[in-house]
Specification:
Layout: E1 31-45, E2 55-61, E3 67-71, E4 83-87, E5 101-104, H1 107-112, E6 116-130, E7 140-146, H2 155-159, E8 163-166, E9 174-179, H3 184-187, E10 190-191, E11 202-209, E12 217-233
Antiparallel strand pairs: 1-4, 1-12, 2-3, 2-11, 3-5, 6-9, 6-10, 6-12, 7-8, 7-11
């Protein structure tokens, strides 16, 4: 049907896409938000014949006050001896010889937390950079667990839980993972003078099977970043 004289066809107007900004964490009254970071390294040295069935597997407790790192086996303080070794990245052991756990410290947390009576966790993120010696066949897997600090023993345990796995390539040897509190109990404020019990804590678990290689050294470089809020100051802030 021919268009009527004087009639102009309406062209639909495309609406502009509205970009939403990430929701910022509300600044607490009589308090502050804080981003804190720390770093450690985990490595496994294989024997001269190469070790079958070995792994890097460790757990990070989601607590800035006492961020415990737990390894799946007792570590070797002498990193020239075959076995697991965890350090602060500057030559000092993070976990003592023949122990399975040690505490990761956050410099900014120590500087500010002493001024407040309460804190809460907003999020935690980790980045794991993987050495070439770890190989390309076995993925790096991440699991979040509550009330269970035990490190993962094998890929069967990984697959039975909600998890993320990243396969490394020659050009990409890094993986990221994170956790945010979801329920009311995890979002509540905690007193500085009380420790977060393991049965109320969340744990990030990292696992990678190691390819058999004589004298091979598989190393993970781990950066841990936490967003926390502090309130109920003990003194007037300048």
């Amino acid at each position: 049907m021919p268009a009527k004289k004087g009639y102009k066809k309406k062209v639909p107007v495309k609406k502009a896409t509205v970009r939403r900004r990430p929701r910022a964490v509300a600044q607490p009254k009589d308090g502050m938000n804080l981003l804190i970071a720390s770093y450690f390294e985990a490595q496994y040295l294989q024997s001269g014949d190469g070790d079958e069935g070995k792994k890097l597997s460790y757990t990070i407790k989601c607590d800035p006050k006492k961020c415990t790192i737990l390894n799946h086996e007792a570590v070797k303080a002498d990193h020239s001896t075959p076995g697991s070794y965890l350090s602060n990245g500057a030559g000092a052991s993070l976990i003592a010889d023949n122990a399975t756990s040690g505490d990761l410290s956050f410099t900014k947390w120590g500087a500010f937390s002493a001024n407040f009576n309460q804190y809460k966790i907003n999020s935690i993120n980790v980045q794991v950079d993987v050495d070439r010696e770890c190989g390309l066949d076995n993925p790096v897997s991440f699991v979040t667990d509550k009330a269970n600090s035990n490190a993962l023993e094998n890929m069967a345990q990984v697959s039975l839980q909600a998890h993320k796995s990243y396969t490394m390539t020659e050009t990409r040897r890094s993986a990221k993972y994170g956790w945010k509190p979801r329920d009311a109990q995890d979002k509540e404020w905690r007193n500085m003078n009380q420790d977060l019990a393991d049965n109320n804590a969340h744990f990030l678990k990292i696992h990678q099977d190691i390819e058999k290689k004589a004298n091979g050294i598989c190393k993970h470089r781990i950066q841990v970043i936490m967003s926390v809020s502090l309130k109920d100051s003990k003194q007037t802030l300048n």
